[in-house]
Design a protein that fits this description.
Cofactor: FAD
CATH class of the largest domain: Alpha Beta
CATH superfamily of the largest domain: FAD/NAD(P)-binding domain
Protein name: CoA-disulfide reductase
Number of helices: 14
Structural class: alpha/beta
Oligomer: single chain
Largest sheet: 5 strands, parallel
EC number: 1.8.1.14
Pfam families: Pyr_redox_2, Pyr_redox_dim, Rhodanese
Family: Belongs to the class-III pyridine nucleotide-disulfide oxidoreductase family.
CATH topology of the largest domain: FAD/NAD(P)-binding domain
Number of domains: 4
Distance between the termini: 70 Å
Length: 549
């Protein structure tokens, strides 16, 4: 007897599951219910349609209800909201939002893919704010773009400095608006650590963005025309975009008695099955396992939802399939820069009490002698004892995406930092160097694993210099014109062997250069000469970015 499978929610997860189900079983009765007007759209492309980088709205619509129904021989009902699940009867209650009709539909298997909704906090005056927007769907996009096209606002406040907030800030700026970003934490882009985000902070300012950090919105006044921050700033504006995160759409599951995690995500096993064996859940609404540390987490990204859509279909048909967790590999364009990350950052590992080490390297995106090579700030987080990779972050104008993709692949493959130098990656001068940036990060981390070098971090070196310890800047004198660390003495690397007698023999010598490489060479010279040395990881580049020098 053929199965009757109902899918609640389309877009990435639900639509992928529906298509895979049909490919597995031509006889199954498949019903896809979506409360919105569109079953599959490019939600990651919405900011770029508002900014008019994407000009054809139809290109956002990946698949229509009619097209999906015809190709996969299934019922696709848009504007139909599932309001209740009767688990004992294996049926759902549905409301047709266009007609108001309510009806029941039975199921053999039920897949929940309701997604997530933007967080809208109870800020004073929010109900009276007239030009306040969130961005999650095509109708949201239409409202924002229509307002900009017809009302021609001059200024926008973006509340929240995450991926969507920064993408929208850029696209609003492209439309000619002055933009203020208000972020409650000390940095934008939560998946990366502070010193990496600092590169983006300066770039946003250079692009004319007013960036307000360590401050939140206290109130909206004058129907949203004035924003009051917790620190007392008053900002006059024409429109507000709330972009402070999303919350899983879990009410349907919760009311049905399905297990919900601490963060609000629907709990599932590795086959994406809830505590009801006939109900599955996928996408932004579920709690997943962090692939790196094994802890429960929420990761509302496109790749996990798409992958889960395929796996859940396989699981329903008894095929060997399991979802092993989410790395959280992510990327965003921020004006001229690309920001990407995978795995855990320092903040997460510190919170979990996991010991780790870090390396920062600043290689060129391709051969330096080939035009348009750009520096990449690449950070690798790892376990010095085992070489296991915990995470990586990169910021740069070119070549960032493929380096993070390589490291994400290495992490999924169980490779260690000692394996990264052995990766044979594609090389030609326009694309890379003979030693790719991933190789270089691996070499640097391997040196630490093998105790070839010791390092100190950017946030530790000032205290060391103020303590009176010896700090040697091995850059050439002209490089000091761009800045230096107070308390350092300058001995250029090429002069170091001839000036060893200027250094104290019985204390640790701290060394730094521009990016870390010459500092490492200096430590090898000094260590072989009987000194004990520690190199500033990432050199002046990392330090200067973190402190905006």
């Amino acid at each position: 007897m053929s199965k009757k499978i109902i899918i609640v929610g389309g877009v990435a997860g639900g639509s992928t599951a529906a298509a895979r189900l049909r490919r597995l079983d031509e006889q199954a009765e498949i019903i896809l219910l979506e409360k919105g007007p569109y079953i599959s759209f490019a939600n990651c492309g919405l900011p770029y349609y508002i900014g008019e980088t994407i000009q054809d709205r139809n290109k956002l619509l990946v698949q229509t209800a009619e097209g999906m129904s015809a190709r996969y021989n299934m019922q696709v009902r848009t504007s139909n909201e599932v309001t209740a699940i009767d688990r004992s009867a294996k049926s759902i209650t549905v409301t047709n939002l266009e007609t108001g009709e309510t009806y029941q539909e039975s199921y053999d298997e039920l897949i929940l893919s309701p997604g997530a909704r933007p967080v809208v906090p109870p800020i004073q005056g929010i109900q009276e704010a007239e030009e306040l927007f969130t961005l999650r769907s095509v109708p949201d996009t239409d409202r924002i773009k229509t307002y900009i096209d017809e009302q021609h606002p001059k200024h926008a406040v973006v509340v929240g400095g995450g991926f969507i907030g920064l993408e929208m800030a850029e696209n609003l700026r492209d439309r000619g608006l002055d933009v203020t970003i208000i972020e409650m934490s000390s940095q934008v882009m939560g998946p990366i650590d502070y010193e990496m985000a600092s590169i983006i902070h300066q770039h946003l300012i250079d692009k004319g963005i007013q960036l307000i950090l360590d401050d939140g919105v206290q109130a909206f006044e004058d129907h949203g025309r004035k924003v009051i921050t917790g620190n007392g700033l008053e900002i006059n504006t024409d429109m507000i975009l709330l972009s402070i995160g999303v919350r899983p759409e879990n009410e349907l599951a919760k009311n049905a008695g399905l297990s919900i995690g601490e963060r609000g995500g629907i709990q599932v096993n590795d086959q994406l099955q809830t505590n009801d064996p006939h109900i599955y859940a996928i996408g932004d609404a579920i709690e997943v396992k962090d692939y790196t540390n094994g802890q429960p987490t929420m990761v509302p990204l496109a790749w996990p939802a798409n992958r889960q859509g395929r796996i859940v279909a396989d699981a329903i048909y008894g095929r060997k399939a399991a979802y092993h967790g989410t790395l959280g590999t992510s990327i965003a364009k921020v004006f001229d820069y690309t920001v990407a990350a995978t795995g855990n950052n320092e903040k997460t590992l510190t919170k979990l009490g996991v010991p780790y080490d870090v390396v920062h390297v600043h290689p060129a995106s391709h051969a330096g002698y080939y035009p348009e090579a750009k520096s990449i700030a690449l950070k690798l987080i790892f376990d010095k004892e085992t070489g296991n990779i915990y995470g990586a972050q990169a910021v740069g104008m070119d070549g960032v995406d493929k380096r993070i993709d390589v490291i994400a692949t290495a992490m999924k493959g169980g490779l260690t930092v000692m394996d990264l130098p052995d990766l044979e990656l594609a090389y030609a001068p326009p694309y890379s160097s003979a030693k790719d940036p991933v190789n270089m990060a691996g070499y640097t981390a391997t040196n630490m694993v093998e105790d070839m070098t010791q390092t100190v971090q950017w946030h530790e070196i000032d205290a060391i210099a103020k303590n009176g310890d010896t700090l040697v800047d091995v850059r050439n004198p002209h490089e000091l014109e761009q800045g230096y660390i107070d308390g350092a003495i300058n001995i250029p690397l090429d002069d170091l062997r001839d000036r060893l007698d200027e250094l104290p023999a019985n204390e640790t010598i701290y060394v730094y250069c521009q990016a870390g490489l010459r500092g490492y060479i200096a430590t090898r010279i000094l260590d072989e000469s009987g000194f004990h040395t520690i190199n500033l990881d990432g050199g002046w580049n990392t330090y200067a970015a973190a402190y905006n020098k």
